[in-house]
Amino acid sequence: MKNKQKTWRYIFAVVVLAIGIILEYLKIGKEFLGFSSVGTWLIYIGFVMIVIIRLQFIKNKKRIIDERMIKISYKATRITFVAIILVAFFIMILDGINPINLAYSMFMSYLICFMIITYFISYKILEKHN
Question: Which domain holds residue 104?
């Protein structure tokens, strides 16, 4: 069963990748979500899907999750949410003082990276002190 799921996921990722290559080769599509075209975006998503599928099946061991870990994750999520609200507030103030000229796609990638790093750091600190 697991190999069948893995195969279908890989097939879907390769199909998305192939459609992206075809659209890029035929030069179909305009700028999309910060990428130069829809084909480029599909190529990117296809590669990301392949990487995620590979990572899911590399090390799939059973983990025991206890109440302490759940509590730590809730606290880390709360800290991340508060950090995002504070950063958004400071960005609004800075944008009012001096307009920020940054592409939306770059802004979103920085924001997502900030969220992941904030969550990871807060989780590790909470884990160490609980």
Answer: 67-129
CA count, 13 A, side-chain hemisphere, 108:
6
Helix runs in 26-103, H state only: 38-58, 67-97
**pTM score, two decimals?**
0.52
The answer on 77 and 123 residing in a single domain is: yes
Residue with tokens 């508060």: 82
Instruction: Look up residue 26 and give its two tokens.
Output: 């035929």
pLDDT tens, position by position, 60-91? 667 777 888 888 888 999 999 999 899 888 88
* CB neighbour list of residue 11: distance below 8 Å, 6 or more residues apart: none
Same-domain check for residues 54 and 72: no
